[in-house]
Design a protein that fits this description.
38% of the residues lie in helices and 18% in strands. It is of the alpha/beta class.
């Protein structure tokens, strides 16, 4: 029976775990908290509670490695991943890593494809570039999925809208890219069980928009006021440094390579459908 090991088994990881369990595999999800462990067990997988900055000698051997844990908060390298990969008892047959589209840096609104040079503009993105390098060094055929903003049930800016928080005016900001969490989980699961022609993919819906339309659509669905727009001067006094760093980068992500190589179209090609499904799921919970 194949074994799937999911390091960083959070929202996306639990969805991948459920798919692996349904396929009859033994699944181990590595988590940090009791609450996360309970979610892993709820889908039929085994939870392993570990501190990724500590002793990882308990990591089991696996056929499929899914690495979804974020890097440390400081530095230019992902020391956490280095420790985990070194602790693996054997080389997995399949390796999948979820990275970020932030590795491209600011593209001035141009389309970003997987072949262009990486220009990470923050230490956070440089850590992701290092993590990609480590994964590809472990296995030359490892799959790296570069994800933009992940949305889905429980991952929507509902509280910001209810609080009446403004957003950056589209005239001052750049392009927004996204992927529904269920689509991302499906991409990761399929990447962990089949061989694709390339090693790096933009894991997105392929339909970039301006940020305002996303917020306005969600507000309309919730029956709330659309958010007010502000310029950069005010944004710099109201938003966190991390949020500002995201807003300063503009690019449009193409998913053409992913669709061509995997044969999988995202279920939620239109974010409006994804928002509606997410709100229905939240109501059901």
């Amino acid at each position: 029976m194949p074994t799937s090991l999911i390091i960083g088994c959070g929202d996306t990881g639990v969805r991948v775990a459920a798919r692996a369990v349904a396929a009859g595999e033994e699944v181990v999800g590595v988590v940090r908290s009791a609450a996360s462990a309970a979610r892993v067990r709820a889908v039929g997988a085994r939870a392993l509670t570990l501190d990724l900055d500590g002793d990882l000698s308990a990591l089991p051997a696996c056929d499929r490695l899914f690495y979804f844990a974020p890097p440390p908060r400081e530095g230019d390298t992902d020391t956490r991943m280095a420790t985990a990969l070194a602790a693996l008892p054997s080389l997995p047959e399949y390796v999948v890593y979820i990275s970020t589209s932030g590795v491209y840096g600011d593209c001035g609104g141009a389309w970003a494809t997987e072949t262009q040079p990486l220009r990470p503009g923050t230490a956070r993105a440089r850590r992701r570039v290092d993590a990609e390098r480590q994964v590809r060094a472990l296995r030359g055929d490892a799959i790296v999925l570069r994800a933009p903003g992940i949305y889905g049930p429980g991952r929507l800016p509902v509280d910001r809208l209810r609080a009446g928080e403004p957003i950056l005016d589209d005239a001052a900001g750049g392009w927004s890219n996204r992927v529904h969490i269920d689509d991302l989980a499906e991409y990761a699961w399929q990447a962990g069980r089949t061989r694709w022609a390339h090693g790096v993919y933009n894991a997105c819906d392929g339909q970039p928009t301006r940020l305002g339309i996303f917020y306005d659509t969600l507000a309309d669905m919730l029956g709330l006021e659309r958010p007010a727009r502000i310029g950069w001067d005010e944004a710099e006094t109201r938003f966190s440094a991390m949020r500002l760093s995201f807003l300063r980068e503009s690019r449009r992500l193409s998913n053409a390579r992913l669709v061509a190589d995997s044969g999988i179209e995202p279920h939620f090609t239109d974010f409006r459908d994804g928002l509606a499904a997410s709100l229905r799921a939240q109501s059901a919970d």
